[in-house]
Input
Amino acid sequence: MRTILIVSLVLLVVSCPCSLAVPVSDTLPHVVIVATGGTIAGTGSSSGELLNYTPGTISISDLMATVPGLNTSASLEGEQFSNIASDQMTPALWLNLTLRVNELLADPDVDGVVITHGTDTLEETAYFLNLGVHSDKPVVITGAMRPATAISADGPLNLLNAVRLAGDPAAKGRGVLICLNNEINGARDTTKTSTEMVETFRSPDFGLLGYMQDEKPAFYRNSTRRHTAASEFILAHGTRLPRVDIVYGYPGMDTTALDAFASGGSEGIVLAALGNGGYPESIGDALVNLSARGIPVVVSSRTGTGIVAPGDTSLISADTLNPQKARILLMLALTKTHDTAEIGKMFGEY
Output
């Protein structure tokens, strides 16, 4: 009889198609898991299949039901925001996700939010949230490099750690956190560095913020740039996110890409420049002309690490932001101003 009862409860949990609430105790932190899809919710044809799998096929209720110890770590709710591969993420989805997270965190009964996400664009979603969420409550984004059906799938432990982190008071006020592989990284400085390895997320210049150790976070440093509750970027339903494009620098390039993006409606350009902000003379006049036409140009670097030194005063240094992160900050900056000097100040603060 006891076995039948347990099986029935498991089936009841798994049958929920889009939302799951697991109230356990008033003494536990209240954490909401917002699922967007990705490898962590992916399935393959066999337990050994690590590459040719389908991301975003498992619902959040099914995912939560498979993680031992999850519902004793927090009083949980789960909701399905989307169920897509993260290469299908868009700025419109970033906006709606950020607004939803702000709604959840405005509830005094919610202590933190976890977002499950595919790893390909996880760093960009995390940074957008870092600039658009207006709360000091923990927001933790996690994912997986191996699908849920794989031997040694990394998703279950990543999700468990993310829930524990989001419910811990020590995570408050630290900006949006990325938690995979027992490591805690900050949204601003972290990037995906490997196509397959579980230790893919790294902060090359400044290092991780801490570790998950013995079921609790151990922090060693903070992100010092403005974020979350200190951000000036106020988003709302109907906010128009300007188009910003990235041009990759290479020897012998001409202005074809710059001209095409400008003609196509770009309101800002990020140049993934050579080395410390270098670029061929063949595009120098075009960059300055774009800025003069009111299309700000931010110079980042394709190297992946280091500060881009300020150069031509009509152009904006990305500081240490990689091109994909610089695109997000420029996009949000353009919701406030097109003034190059003002945008330059923002890149020095965020």
